[in-house]
Design goal:
The protein has one domain (about 25-130): Lipocalin (Beta Barrel). Helices cover about 25% and strands about 35% of the residues. The protein is built from two helices and eight strands; from the N terminus they run H-E-E-E-E-E-H-E-E-E. An eight-stranded antiparallel sheet has the order 5-4-3-2-1-8-7-6. The termini are far apart.
Length: about 130
């Protein structure tokens, strides 16, 4: 009889959302550096990083450009709006990579986190590793 009550209790708790299920979306990794899953480009050690505060303000550091942004997150949807991007001296190859990455960030519509990997999806899937330090 007690096992029946335990099963009923477990079903009620899962239905009420008090026990996380495998399909539950992880919380967005606010206040952590999200490092693009890419090797540095030739002649540089730099890799693009995005950091998002809980209020949606973002710091965006690309291959050459740096600036701010606004990020809006609702469930698994996300919108990124970079602004105030400032150019730093760099090669034409890295400048082109910045333009392509900015365009991809503007097309992002959803996000997913598995372990420490955040995938931003839209026109192009972008994989970022959440810094663990």
């Amino acid at each position: 009889m007690s096992q029946r009550w335990l099963r009923l209790f477990a079903l009620v708790m899962i239905g009420a959302g008090n026990i996380p299920t495998a399909s539950a979306q992880a919380e967005f990794p606010y206040n952590r550096d999200l490092i693009l899953d890419a090797r540095p480009m030739r002649g540089s050690k730099r890799v693009p990083i995005v950091a998002v505060e809980q209020n949606g303000r973002a710091q965006i550091d690309l291959w050459c450009k740096r600036g701010d942004g606004q990020v809006t997150i609702a469930g698994d949807t996300i919108a990124i709006t970079p602004f105030g991007m400032k150019d730093e001296p760099c090669t034409p190859e890295r400048q082109q990579a910045d333009e392509e990455l900015l365009a991809a960030l503007l097309q992002v519509t959803s996000w997913q986190m598995r372990g420490d990997v955040v995938t931003l999806s839209g026109g192009t899937a972008l994989r970022f590793k959440a810094a663990t330090n």
